[in-house]
Here is the input.
Amino acid sequence: MSLARGVSLVGAGMTRFHHRIHQDKSGRELFNEAAEKAIESVDGGIDRRDLQAVFVGYFTPEAYEHQGHIGAQVTDWLGLCPVSGWRTESACASSAYAFLTGVLAIASGLYDVVLVGGVEKMTELSTEQVTDALSMAACDDYELPPGATFPGLYALLAQAYFKKYGATWEQLQAVPIKSHHNGSLNSNAQFQEEIIDIGNRWGARRGLSFKDNMEVLKSTLNRMVAYPLRLFDCCPISDGAATAILAADDVAKKYTDTPIKIKGVSATTDNLAIHDRTSLTSLRATVEAGKRAFSMAGMKPKDVDVADVHDCFTIAEILAIEDLGFFKRGEGIRAVEEGITSLKGDIPINTDGGLKCKGHPAGATGVGMIHEIWKQLRGEAGKRQISNAEIGLLHNVGGDGASCVVSIFSR
Amino acid sequence: MSLARGVSLVGAGMTRFHHRIHQDKSGRELFNEAAEKAIESVDGGIDRRDLQAVFVGYFTPEAYEHQGHIGAQVTDWLGLCPVSGWRTESACASSAYAFLTGVLAIASGLYDVVLVGGVEKMTELSTEQVTDALSMAACDDYELPPGATFPGLYALLAQAYFKKYGATWEQLQAVPIKSHHNGSLNSNAQFQEEIIDIGNRWGARRGLSFKDNMEVLKSTLNRMVAYPLRLFDCCPISDGAATAILAADDVAKKYTDTPIKIKGVSATTDNLAIHDRTSLTSLRATVEAGKRAFSMAGMKPKDVDVADVHDCFTIAEILAIEDLGFFKRGEGIRAVEEGITSLKGDIPINTDGGLKCKGHPAGATGVGMIHEIWKQLRGEAGKRQISNAEIGLLHNVGGDGASCVVSIFSR
Here is the structure.
């Protein structure tokens, strides 16, 4: 399986993801802001009239902004009419599908240069309303009536993993500790503080001081959300947008001498309701998408230098790095503990802080991940730059694994 | 502009569109029903495992079914996991974009055979709630606060057209008269009655009888909706689903000796809010999409034998046939009056009864139109079959023209 025409990334831009600073902006304004940054990022400059289409992921604009017809909306606000634009939706992977649609559109020969991206404007609703909006990624017929929400669904996966592999919640905390460290080095991240610093800031008002991350994580600051998942096991609610500019390989050289090539793309589904799945310790959609993307790229997991994987909850990151083949089953959690996925490890994971710290504006997340791969492969990731990054991997999941996109990029 | 790889239709299927008969079914069940019919329609048979992806248009499942993640949902219910599936949204053109995504996915080389389609399950909500859901296709910032709804927006277009060309509401009634005639010949249509028959059925309970269609249209049965548009100027609210199976040209021959070839595809946008547009008597998105699709196909409007155009309101059909170049500006309304767009006319329009009579389950409409082109080009349209149909055109609009897909098909 190969594409009829090669496609490369020639630009990427994002807003900071945040729960507060964007409250005066609408989704379309956030998308515009990210798009302007992508346009500015193109080495040799780009005339916006070169953009022939806009593909935008937005999970539930109906709930957050009482607005549909999002493709036309953002294309209009970018001043690009009559170029085509449409929305893709696949829950929290919505913008990875916008990216994938952009890749297909260029590979098909219909367009040469397109803008892809995503946005979610979540913070104007109450936490209860956001929980309700997000619940539409699960099965409304069978999962919501008994009261399931996403923390609860991922808690099931964590419990199953702990039981099968004799792992513990304490071990799992290596994930947020790493994420907060990476997030502290990322100016686009929602949370840019080490856990120990958050703890001591919180503790100062209570006459408490902490000596390490783990002590904070075991304190009442880290309140229970859905057993065994606590606050720091969960990604936040965020506003934000991220975009990227794609060009056909034969056109990309007009814009940059260092395009980032797309070597493999794949998308998969799994049963929407978790009770229909064959495993609770693996997401089949990830396994299959990973296999296909590696096959298209002609690569293996060991070839990957840096990966952004979908860590909406800590356990999700562990399942992802095992399902993608970076680690054997049951060994992912120890790999994180041992620092193998840290910035200086063999396979750095979520160098941007992940959904946990960078934030998770659902529709923006997939292309936000691509933004990080773009930065790392171009050597522009600043203090969190890993050395000699040549191959990067994107892994973006919808809901609790009913859809998945994996893509492999090369410098 | 041409596609890297040719794509053909090898199957199509739809549920009847209706306001009542599907009330016990969910959107996923309707989509399944349409998909089964598409699978059955393939001349040489098809193993559903040949389907490598599912692209589904659904405008506002969040409003109607409290459900997102629609691509995974329908793929799951079709028993096709782990194949990929995702949702496209562009208001009332959502499934034309699913079709377009399917075309791009095959032309790109990623897939050989895909299922495309759309669904909308609208009738469980009250009319007020449906009006609210549909309003999300307009601009929530500038159009909805002053009270605009879609009948009102299209009424503006009708008034502008009447004023510019000296046309009248009476002339416009040639559209529903034709649509009801065509709908009466279509077993998939929501309304399968001539207007005169509806009038006399309604009149029988009131001691009234009518001698022709126009007398019914001038009666109180045809109540005012948004001046000058009356009830019979408006399409109904409907439940329904439609699907089609696409295959690469080199693979299509495995399934049928008479594939329907896709000769041209295009998509465009226009300003979301109508006050930003340059004209009220033409939809720029249609004009541009038409030009591009004809250019790709190497054809002109006169080459088209049959067209399904977006007639959510009567005036929309007039604008469409002028914007697509079938008639000069201001002459479309007289062309319909003169029967040039009837089943026996030079260019039959909306042979299936159009949105007006076939129904308009928003997300299903685009592929529902493709279903009609498929039937006509294969000579399977029964009593409404036109003679020697070789070239067919699809025209599907989002909202009041902020997005548009045009596609040209050839026997």
